[in-house]
Amino acid sequence: MFKTSFIDEVDVELEFGGGRRHIDIRFGILNHGTFDQDERTNARKINIAVVGLPDPTENFLSWLDKCSSGIDAKETTKPNLFPRFPGFGADSPFNAEWVCDNRAIRNLSTNDISHLQSLSTPGEIIKKAVSFYTSEFDYLANEIRPDVIYCIIPEMLGDQLDRAAEMTGPIARYSEEGEEAINRYRHDFHHCLKSEAMCYRIPIQLVLPSTFDVGTRGKSTKKKSRSKKARQLQDSATRAWNLFTAMYYKAGCTPWRLARKPSDYTTCHVGISFYKSLDEKTVMTSIAQIFNDRGEGVIVRGGQARLSKKDRTPHLSEEDSAAIIIRVLQLYHDEHKNTPARVVLHKSSYFTPEEQAGFRAGLEQERISMVDMLSIRKSSIRLFRMGAYPVLRGTHMPLDGNKHLLYTRGSVPFFETYPGLYVPRALEIQFDLIEQSREMLCREILALTKMNWNNTQFDMRDPITLRAARGVGDIMKYIPLDAPNSRIATRYSFYM
Known about the structure:
Blueprint: E1 5-6, E2 14-15, E3 21-22, H1 25-32, E4 44-52, H2 54-68, E5 96-99, E6 105-107, H3 110-114, H4 122-144, E7 148-152, H5 155-166, E8 173-174, E9 180-181, H6 184-197, E10 204-207, H7 209-212, E11 221-222, E12 230-231, H8 236-250, E13 257-258, E14 267-275, E15 285-291, E16 297-304, E17 306-307, E18 314-315, H9 318-336, E19 342-347, H10 353-365, E20 370-378, E21 395-398, E22 403-406, E23 427-433, H11 438-448, H12 464-476
Parallel strand pairs: 4-5, 4-6, 4-7, 7-10, 14-19, 19-20
Antiparallel strand pairs: 1-21, 2-3, 2-13, 8-9, 11-12, 14-15, 15-16, 17-18, 20-23, 21-22, 22-23
């Protein structure tokens, strides 16, 4: 018989202004302000730039202005799930305000976008569409140097990306959370644009008109595209929370951090994932994403990986494992001016004996003795709970051997509901090599699901280590394997 345990949200609190804590991101900022606001005396000015067609750009800026004064909460019986947005300005909990100079508004041409219709291959369409934006980045990077560039994606461009997808047949699918997954070519455009923008060293944010240009609050809108599918919009306050929190983080600020006890060791969390080169002909290549307690990330591209004959998943050699962890720690030291006392490795495939030996050798060379290695995957095992709601988020259970089941999604008492659409799936955690207790490591994973600066609802499924590693790999595949390290931006804000 298996026995389940439960990790309460109070055990994975986040830290906000003045060192005060809360289990929820939005209420933490509402009640205590952002973590770093006490580090400055004046409001932080965030200079933004916008690239898009004239009308959507004007509507976007008007929406930002409206949100800056605050957005009322959605009318609901679940007030903790849909809190009001407090606004964004010197007197707001963010203690920051956005500024957009007229010279920072760059207009696209409808004629240029219309000419995409004459292109006959998906690659040509994506490459040309990306060039519309990067040509404006040249001016902005040299003349304005904004903190963040917003790229408004007009519906007519979305139609051309849908046309590119139709050239290879329908490929739309649905995610586990019930949100429509953007088709491959919209993804490719996003990833390609992010990779091309990297050399300007200014974070960018892609924005769809449906984010800000809606006629009826809270209702779904029909995408004017060939997919003919409805896109369910979040309520106005939630959209404002997500966009402005991402803006704050991309501008180099810290909205919140993992709560730490004085006795806690300084810890570096490393997520390791794998991706194929763009032509899908080369061996899988590894990347790593590093996070400290403030969520400051450093990106590393590792060497080539090899597919294991045993499980057909990619793994690193002992030498490459040692090399990548040494590179990780060197960049960590360059960024943070210190060395962590402890390193936690999260990987999507199990750690082979060669990988374990290589990582340990590299850590020993850098004089770090404490290490935990965990492989994390979606589990096929599902637990069911009596009553109307699914199993509680934070439920965990030991399985046979060195494995554990952990629910990072599920019913949340603070929300008084389960905020998902489908029966949640647990994560299967394999403790390949650990020094800390399994309870503590599960608690750490649960806390890391709250470190996603693109989404302020805290019950994400994956820890930020692996979520970021996979996202970084999607963009990294557009950077040639022989490109110098200087071509690769090392901060996570360029990839999110």
